[in-house]
Amino acid sequence: MSHPAGHNPSHDWQHGGFTRRQALQAGAVGILGLGMNHLLGLREANAEAQPLGKAKSLIFIFLSGGLSQHDSFDMKPNAPENVRGEFKPIATKTPGLQICEHLPLLAQRSEMWALCRSVTHGSNEHSAGHHMMLTGHSYLPTGFDPNSPKRTDRASIAAIAGYATRGQQKNNLPSAVVLPERLVHNSGRVIPGQHAGEMGPKHDPWIIEAAPFHNMSYGAFPEYSFDHQIRGKADDRVFQAPQLSLPQGLGMQSVRGRLELLSSLKRQRRDLAQHAQVENFDRLRQGAVSLLTDSSVHEALDVTHADAKDLERYGRNSFGWSLLMARKLVSAGVKLVQVNLGNDETWDTHGNAFPHLKDKLFPPTDQAVSALLDDLQSTGELDETMIVMAGEFGRTPKITLLEKSYKLPGRDHWGALQSVLFAGGGVRGGNVIGKSDALGAYPTERPVTPENFAATIYHALGIPATAAWYDVEDRPHHIYHGEPIAELF
C-alpha cells in the first residue's frame, strides 16, 4: 500500500514500536480479535516500549445532561442567592479546596483527584455538546444532524483510543468498551458522537447493553431512579449485562438472559472446538475465540452477582454496578471503558434540581466513584488507571423556574463552563487547574477546550502526539487536535 505524498511512516506510532503497517493491522482486529494473524508479532515488537503517559487503562465517566458546576465542584457561596443555589460548600482533605456538601466521600479523598474548572466550548445544545465532548472537537462537522449520528461525524474518543491502543490490551479483549447503554433521547433518537463516525463502523467501540431503555426514568435504578418531571411511568428495569457472543457467520446466537449463561458457555465451547477442527483456525484465532469462555470476562460482566462486600461499597444500583464492571474490565485488560452514569439527559436538571441532585444523583455517584478510587488504590492500580468524569456542558449561573414543566427551580444548559474531575494515571491529587469568574459563567484562567480534554486522555494512554489514523484511501488523520492539560501531571 502506498503512502500519501509527503507522508513519512517513521513519524507515525513512534511510541510503542508501531510502524504504520502494524498500526493498520492492529486496527483490523474485530471485537474478539478474530482474523488478526500477527498479534503476537506486534506484541513482541512492542515488548520494550516506554509509554508517554503512566496510564495502562482509562475509565471515562460521562454525565449525560450536564452536571451543574455551581452545585458540585465550583461553588460560589458569595454569589447572589439566585446564582449560589441551595447547597453549601464543605472542606475537602486538601487545604483551601471546597466542594458540595452532598459529595462527602469524594471530599474525604481529594488527595486522589484533581479538578479542571475551566472546560469550555460554544454550544448549549445537547446533541452538539455530546458530539464535542465525546469526540474532542469544538467544531461540528459539515452535515451534522443533532437528531441522528452520521458516518461523517467525528470519531468518538473511545473509538480513537481503541484504534490507537489495539494490540496492547491483554487476552484479545476489545480495546474500547462503552457501558451500560447507548445514550438515547427519550424520543428514541440516538445521540451523535458515540461511534467511530468517519473512521467507519469496524472501529466502533464495543457497547455493553446492560441497562434497558426507559424514556421517562433516569438515574441509578432501581433504588435511585427518578423522573425529571414526575410523569408517573413505572421503572421496572433490570440491570443485566449480555453474555459475549461470536460475530455473525459462525452460527452462534447472542445470549442475554443470565439463566442461560452456563449452558450457553458449555455449548459454545463445544461448538467452537468443532469449528476450530473443521475450519482449521490457527493458534491466534483459537486464542481469540477462547475469550468466550474466559472466566474473568464473565465475572466482569456479571456484576450483579459480585462479592457482597464489593456490592455494598459500590452500591446496588446501575451506577455502582457500572463502575464495578468498568473496574473489572480494565483489570482484565480493556484499555478504555466509557461509563455513562445515567441514560441520556439524566443530569439535565432544568427543574427540581436541588432535591434530585441531593437525593437521587449525588449519593450513588459519590459512593460509586469513591469506591472505585479506593479499590484501585488498594491494589496499587490507581497510578496506572486514569479516571475522568465530565458531561457535555455545565449549567447556567442563574437559577430559573420553568413553571409549565417543573414544580421547583433548576439551571439551564451552559457550554461556556464546566468542571471536570481527573484521577489516577499520574494525576496530581488535590490539584485545581483553571478558574471561573465570580458567577461561575466563564473561565478567567486557563480555558480548556474539548481538544485539550481529548488530548489529555490520549497522552495519558501513551498515544504519541504524531499518531494518526488512516482511512480506506490510506489518508492520514491526526489524532491530536490540541495540547494535553500538562498541569494535571
3D structure, described in words:
The protein has 489 residues and is an alpha/beta fold. The protein has 2 domains: 9-240 and 314-408 and 415-488, Alkaline Phosphatase, subunit A; 242-301, no CATH class. It is 28% helix and 12% strand. The strands form 5 sheets. It has an 8-stranded mixed β-sheet with strand order 6-5-7-1-8-11-4-12, with helices on both faces. It is globular and about 60 Å long. Residues 1-51, 245-262 and 278-291 have low confidence and may be disordered.
The overall number of domains is 2
Query: Which whole number gives the mean pLDDT?
Result: 83
Helical residue percent band: 25-40%
The helix/strand class is: alpha/beta
The outline comes out as globular
Uncertain runs with pLDDT below 50, 5 residues or more?
Answer: 1-51, 245-262, 278-291
From the 3D structure, determine the CATH topology of the largest domain. Answer: Alkaline Phosphatase, subunit A
Strand-residue fraction?
5-15%
Kindly, what is the distance between the CA atoms of the first and last residues, rounded to a whole number of angstroms? Answer: 39 Å
What is the N-to-C succession of helices and strands? Answer: HHEHEEHEHHEEHHHHHEHEEEEEEEHEE
Instruction: Sketch the major β-sheet.
Output: 8 strands, mixed
Number of strands: 16
In the CATH hierarchy, what is the architecture of the largest domain at level 2?
3-Layer(aba) Sandwich
Radius of gyration in whole Å, from Cα?
22 Å
Biggest sheet, spatial arrangement of strands: 6-5-7-1-8-11-4-12
Give me the number of helical elements.
13
Give the name of the CATH superfamily of the largest domain: Alkaline Phosphatase, subunit A
Name the CATH class of the largest domain.
Alpha Beta
